[in-house]
Design brief:
single chain; about 0% helix; about 100 residues; Rieske Iron-sulfur Protein
């Protein structure tokens, strides 16, 4: 699993919660949805740089805590009518653990 790092056990992230991973590429927010999906986005809203990790997760989106921009967790794209994109990172579950790809 070259380029993958183990972040934590899935149960260490609350459903509809997040965890921040510091990396050389900036902070990465790892999100867990209510149905145990996991997603990784650059922890910076494309609008004004707000911390997405502090936003509200609902379905497969997160709402930025600063100005209410809704960002899709699957693709990092802002939900219309908002515009912009947060960089997406590959995240997966394996053996109950959350893994992040940094390459």
């Amino acid at each position: 699993m070259s380029g993958w790092i183990k972040v934590c056990a899935l149960d260490e992230i609350a459903p509809q919660g997040s965890r921040v991973v510091a990396s050389s590429q900036g902070d990465i927010a790892i999100f867990r949805t209510a149905d145990d999906g996991v997603f990784g986005l650059h922890d910076k809203c494309p609008h004004k740089g707000g911390p997405l990790s502090q936003g509200i997760v609902h379905g497969d989106t997160v709402t930025c805590p600063l100005h209410g921009f809704k960002i899709g967790l699957k693709d990092g794209e802002a939900v219309a009518p908002d515009k912009g994109c947060a960089r997406r990172f590959e995240v997966k579950l394996d053996g109950g653990a959350v893994w992040l790809q940094l390459t």
